[in-house]
Amino acid sequence: MKLNEVEVGSTVTVKKIEGDGAYKRRIMDMGITKGVELYIRKVAPLGDPVEITVRGYELSVRKNDAQCVEVE
Fold first, then answer.
1. Is residue 62 a contact partner of residue 49, using CB atoms and an 8 Å limit?
2. Domains contained in the chain, number
């Protein structure tokens, strides 16, 4: 399942990050790494961006970035 498909209020664990080196690195620099738990706080009305809680802080992630994060 991809991060952009998860329901609001769910807690998921990052399984894999897809993309090329620089793109993947940018996502990892935001604190989204393999094995970390993400809580889906809310989604904007048109689905972009997705607001998540990761490592104790709130983060807004664009829909394109959320599609590259595989979760379980």
1. yes
2. 1
Give the residues across from 52 on adjacent strands.
Answer: 40, 59
Q: What's the rounded Cα separation, in Å, for the pair 47 and 33?
A: 22
- Note the pLDDT of residue 45: 86
Confidence (pTM): 0.83
Per-residue CA distances from 22 to 49, 53, 55 (Å)? 21, 23, 22
Token pair for 43: 């989604």
Question: What is the full DSSP assignment across 1-69?
Answer: -BGGGSPTT-EEEEEEE-S-HHHHHHHHHTT--TT-EEEEEEE-TTS-SEEEEETTEEEEE-HHHHTTE
How far apart (Å, rounded) are the C-alpha atoms in residues 37 and 71? 9
CATH code, domain carrying 43? 2.30.30.90
